[in-house]
């Protein structure tokens, strides 16, 4: 085998990639994934570090996400060094004791390869051995070229369809990217059948789960990359193995970050924040990939840090660890991984742990009926939040009552339903994650009726308040709880929205998106609010905004 970069311009494998038959394909000798040449022209977005350069092309000729990894352009001498390290690793494999620990195994391979390479290079380029050591680990016990997609924070989903040789890997991107570039892109990465089987073997080994014709579905977590993998094989997938990877955000979402990407407006965010402060019960619903969990996670940053939250999940996705790091009180209960504990059992246990905000990662099974019974009886804690699969407030009610057995009367324990959706303004190919509806449950009429407080406006591609917002039952209930008038509370709502707008300006987009900023913004608002009340001025208007900025800039200087 040639030690250098292998370039293919013809042959059977070349013909299998019919979609780009005129492009050159290349790979280093130790990889089994091929890259095709990037499209001509200037990219719409380009980023680079020592390990990889990524470029996003969005033109009439097509949308592409292209990677140029360091290892695919290495000189022959460096490739020989990596091959030599891999050979020595094969001759002297890692100790049996760490083979079942993915993190320890990866660290061992990277560290040992780096040490071997340092000895071979005689002090040349002190940073290069560590780089080549990481590459050695990446292509042995890791996920190969695909790791460059897993490490990119903008990549939210990765799709590998069968047969892999004739189809590129696809990604969906979002988050901190220039406006208009969200969407799904074909990459310049093609996996061979051999590489796909190797990746599945790594997944199967570290998860300890079966994957065969008798068990053709493998679902597991990628802890190193904060992601969830679903692999499907024959006979369920007749064309071969296919893989879908859903990445969780590296940085927790906050209301400021959702505002920055256009998923929420400042007024809608202020309303949701006020509803959390007023201990309302809320369901966040929507289809897969619409951002339900991101919205729920952002709302957890709005819970007062003096309150405890109990989070029940079967797949850990909510930002429990970051919340605890920033001074919140969060207890996570992971169901399905603790001796077969069910969500219903975890819910009953949570209720015995004392007054807490209950957070259900997904409301979907037998626990739903139990939850609503407890909410109706007033024993479910100070507030209840959760996600739900449905595409409208009416669909939430129908599924809860007809499919999950919640009584019509019990459902009125829900205060608000927030619907997340995927929208395509003016029929564009790009799909945006947006909150498309915030509705309150009408409690004094026939069951199953809702009042829209915010609704998505397609021409402006944003959420707009309705005429019913000032007279909302939710605001009236919070005002009654706090002993103030609805008009005073509505003034506070506007003040909260102004604070969120001003915070984005004071901090700038990048700092505002950082998770540690949201608690500081909220704490400064609470202090400014208390200062206003002490002065006999209920929070609202320019006075509160001025006091907030004084407190906030003093605390973050």
Question: What's a concise summary of this model?
Answer:
With 557 residues, the chain is an alpha+beta fold. The chain has a domain at 255-470: P-loop containing nucleotide triphosphate hydrolases (Rossmann fold, 3-Layer(aba) Sandwich), CATH 3.40.50. Helix 2 (76-91) packs across helix 4 (128-138).
Shape from CA axes? globular
What structural class is derived from the secondary structure elements? alpha+beta
CATH architecture name of one domain:
3-Layer(aba) Sandwich
Give the N-terminus to C-terminus distance in angstroms.
60 Å
CATH class of one domain: Alpha Beta
Instruction: Tell me the strand percentage band.
Output: 15-25%
Low-confidence stretches: 10-14, 16-22
CATH names the topology of one domain as Rossmann fold
CATH superfamily of one domain: P-loop containing nucleotide triphosphate hydrolases
Q: Let me know the number of strands.
A: 22
Radius of gyration: 26 Å
Number of helical segments with 4 or more residues: 19
Mean pLDDT, nearest integer?
Answer: 86
What percent of residues adopt helix (DSSP H or I)? 25-40%
Q: What characterizes the major β-sheet?
A: 9 strands, mixed
Sheet with the most strands: spatial strand order:
4-5-6-9-8-7-13-12-11
């Amino acid at each position: 085998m040639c030690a250098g970069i292998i370039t293919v311009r013809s042959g059977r494998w070349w013909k299998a990639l019919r979609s780009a038959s005129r492009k050159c394909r290349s790979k280093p000798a130790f990889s089994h994934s091929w890259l095709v040449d990037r499209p001509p022209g200037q990219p719409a977005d380009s980023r680079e570090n020592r390990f990889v350069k990524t470029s996003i092309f969005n033109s009439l000729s097509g949308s592409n996400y292209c990677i140029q990894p360091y290892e695919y352009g290495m000189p022959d001498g460096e490739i020989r060094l990596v091959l030599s390290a891999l050979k020595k690793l094969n001759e002297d494999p890692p100790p049996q004791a760490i083979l079942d620990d993915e993190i320890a195994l990866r660290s061992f391979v990277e560290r040992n390869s780096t040490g071997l390479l340092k000895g071979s290079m005689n002090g040349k380029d002190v940073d290069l051995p560590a780089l080549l050591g990481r590459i050695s680990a990446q292509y042995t016990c890791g996920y190969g070229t695909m790791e460059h997609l897993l490490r990119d924070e903008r990549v939210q989903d990765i799709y590998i369809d069968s047969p892999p040789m004739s189809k590129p890997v696809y990604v969906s991107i979002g988050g901190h990217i220039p406006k208009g570039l969200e969407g799904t892109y074909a990459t310049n990465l093609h996996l061979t059948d051999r590489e796909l089987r190797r990746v599945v073997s790594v997944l199967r080994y570290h998860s300890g789960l079966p994957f065969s014709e008798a068990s053709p579905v493998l679902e597991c977590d990628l802890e190193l990359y904060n992601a969830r993998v679903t692999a499907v094989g024959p006979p369920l997938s007749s064309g071969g193995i296919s893989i879908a990877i859903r990445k969780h955000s590296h940085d927790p979402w906050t209301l400021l970050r959702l505002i920055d990407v256009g998923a929420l407006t400042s007024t809608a965010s202020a309303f949701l924040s006020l509803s959390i402060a007023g201990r309302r019960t809320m369901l966040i619903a929507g289809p897969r990939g619409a951002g339900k969990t991101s919205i729920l996670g952002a709302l957890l940053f709005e819970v007062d840090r003096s309150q405890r939250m109990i989070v029940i999940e079967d797949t850990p996705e909510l930002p429990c660890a970051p919340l605890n790091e920033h001074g919140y009180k969060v207890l996570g209960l992971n169901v399905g991984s603790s001796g077969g504990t069910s969500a219903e059992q975890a819910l009953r246990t949570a209720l015995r742990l004392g007054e807490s905000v209950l957070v259900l990662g997904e409301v979907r099974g037998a626990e739903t009926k139990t939850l609503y019974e407890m909410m109706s009886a007033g024993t479910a804690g100070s507030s209840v939040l959760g996600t739900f699969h449905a595409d409208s407030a009416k669909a939430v009610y129908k599924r809860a009552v007809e499919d999950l057995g919640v009584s019509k009367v019990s459902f009125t324990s829900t205060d608000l339903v927030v619907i997340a959706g995927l929208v395509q303004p003016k029929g564009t190919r790009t799909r945006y994650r947006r909150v498309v509806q915030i509705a309150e449950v009408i409690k004094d009429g026939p069951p199953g009726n809702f009042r829209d407080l915010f609704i998505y406006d397609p021409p402006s591609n944003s959420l707009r308040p309705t005429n019913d917002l000032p007279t909302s039952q939710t605001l009236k209930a919070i005002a009654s709880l706090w002993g103030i008038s609805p008009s005073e509370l509505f003034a506070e709502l506007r003040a909260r929205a102004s604070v969120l707008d001003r915070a984005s300006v004071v901090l700038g987009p990048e700092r505002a998106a950082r998770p540690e900023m949201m608690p500081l913004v909220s704490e400064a608002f609470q202090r400014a609010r208390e200062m206003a009340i002490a002065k006999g001025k209920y929070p609202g208007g320019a006075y509160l905004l001025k006091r907030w900025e004084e407190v906030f800039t003093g605390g973050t200087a």
